[in-house]
Amino acid sequence: LPTSRLTVSPDNPVFTGETVNLKCEIQSYSNWRYEWYKGSTKVSDHYTVNSISIRGVKKSDAGQYTCKGLRDERPNSSQSSSAVYLTVTDLPTSTLTVTPDNPVFTGERVNMNCEIESYSNWKLRNSLTHDGRNDWPYKWRYEWYKSSIEVSERYTVNGNTLTIEQSKTTDAGQYTCKGHINGRSVSSQTSSAVDLSVKDLKPKPELTSDPAGAALTGNTVNLTCRMDPSTGWDFYCTGVELEEGKPVYYTQYSDALWVNVTVSPKAVVTIRPDERVFRGETVTLRCEIKWGGDTEWTYRWEIEGTSNLYRNSADRCTQECSTSGTNNQTHRNDVSWCSTQEVNISSVDHIHSGKYTCTGQKNTQCSQRSDAVTLNVSAEAQAAVRVSPQPWLTEGDSVTLICEVTGSSTGWTFSWFRDDDHLSDSSRGAGGSYTLSPAALQHTGVYTCRAERGRPAYYTKYSNTQPLWITGVSRSVSLVVSPSRSQHFSSDSLSLSCEDQSNSTGWTVRRYTDRNTKNCSKQTGSTCRIVSLSTSDTGVYWCQSESGEKRHPLNITVH
After folding, report:
1. Which of 1, 268, 272, 351 is the most buried (most CB within 10 A)?
2. pLDDT of residue 327
3. Per residue in 491-523, is it b (16+ CB within 10 Å) or e — as a string?
């Protein structure tokens, strides 16, 4: 039997909405009538012409097609053609973009770009995995519409780009585009509409500064030129002037912006109670910045010390306020130091010694760095007492006891003790001095002092002992030591007697040793006997009457 051949145009795949032509060719004999099948189903009656058309093809038209011929003479039929599969796919999408961004301004050049969906994406969407091509095999031509009406010849079209050389307010509206395949009755899907807005008023940029208002010397000031819309512009700080696109479109000049530059204030570090402190004291460091107005500062602290232990204990802060010419080393401080004006160290130790500096920051502006202040931490404070003019005097004279803290003189208040009893008569004390004027016999005794400062209070060690002896103008009582020598030794015996030229009764020997005032351990009448001396017997011994008068003090040292 004669063979049949089925051809389909256009080539597979075809797009929905296209017109598809199927043609059945039989090379021999004539007077054929043709039958068409989709799968095993006949899709048409006998036709004397060898082609049929499917107009507005749909996805449901996809399938395997065959054809064959029939006639009244022998041979009365042909063989069925080989099956041809018709693939029907979705139309590719179109995307319209407009540059520059909306709104545009009269006189600006506007470009509209029509992009057809990529071939690879279209294949994936239509499951054409067998197709090895990556690009469209067709040439596209583009159509542009404004409010569903094809655009006028006033616009310039170059490939997939439509250009409005000098936009007018009449160019405003909704634009769409689509692509056509040359030689085919098909186009892409129409793009979504893009609204073009054309403003008649020439735009004016806004110029701002950060920080606003006064800027401080040594800091950075950022000038920002803003436009709405914000994309596509180049900025020039001549006045300011902006440009966009090619050819260049210029805006109006911005309003002038004044930047006031003032001298940056310098921070000052103060230390309370003093730059010289002692272990265990409470120390407060404060950063002071003299600056007008209600400016609120945040603070940055740095320490250059002799030990890394303390600085590494809370590595939270870094140097955020740096100016040219400063040391950029990061100093490690406690986390609470990051922004507070005051830094409190509740129990200072040697590891806190070092040089402290601070810097103030408000918004993006920084003060000048303070000069370094050195914090020196010494061992426990020791009070020392001295007397002026002398510890031996006659009643009626004046005498001043002076209490000092070794190596420190700032912020101390003083307490005085006589024979280990606290003296509440503060009217006699001024600063570190305690004055007796006139001195009386009852003022005789052993004096010590102690200093304190800060809250909570920090106390020094007690001072050395300072005997003070006031002798009456009458009656002389002597303390007689036996054996009479300058040095005494442990295990020796010692006798001390109070002898009055007129009356030896009524007097006893008292002593002050190791911060305690007490009677002689073994006393008979006015005589004290120590059978076996020890070093703890070292102290001041004197004669004391029943009325409390104290006479003739002597230092006894036992080795």
Report:
1. 272
2. 31
3. ebebebbbebeeeeeebbbbbbbeeebeebeee
Among 243-247, 293-297, 431-435, 446-450, the range with the most confident prediction by mean pLDDT is 446-450
Q: What is the pLDDT of residue 319?
A: 34
| Beta partners for residue 207, in sequence order | 225
Q: Which residues neighbour 66 within 8 Å (Cβ) at sequence distance 6 or greater?
A: 6, 36, 37, 80, 81, 82, 83, 84
Task: Please give the Cα distance from 125 to 13 (Å, whole number).
Answer: 14
| DSSP classification of residue 309 | H
Residues in a beta bridge with 89: 15
Query: Pick from 167, 158, 162: which is nearest to 96 by CA?
Result: 162
Contacts for 209 with CB less than 8 Å, ≥ 6 apart: 215, 221, 222, 223, 224, 257, 259
Nearest to 68 by CA among 47, 95, 92: 47
Q: DSSP H helical segments within 127-172, as ranges? A: none
User: How many angstroms separate the CA atoms of 74 and 78, rounded?
Assistant: 10
CB 298 within 8 A of CB 339: yes
Work out the angle at residue 227's Cα, subtended by the Cα atoms of residues 222 and 233, and round it to the nearest 5 degrees: 90
**Which amino acid is residue 233, in one-letter code?**
W
* Strand pairing category for 14-15 and 88-89: parallel
Q: Which comes out higher in pLDDT, residue 231 or 517?
A: 517
CA distance 509 to 520: 6
Please state, in angstroms and as integers, the Cα–Cα distance from residue 217 to each residue in 261, 319, 324, following that order: 6, 19, 11
CB 30 within 8 A of CB 89: no
Angle at 385 between CA 382 and CA 388, to 5 degrees: 155
DSSP state of 484: -
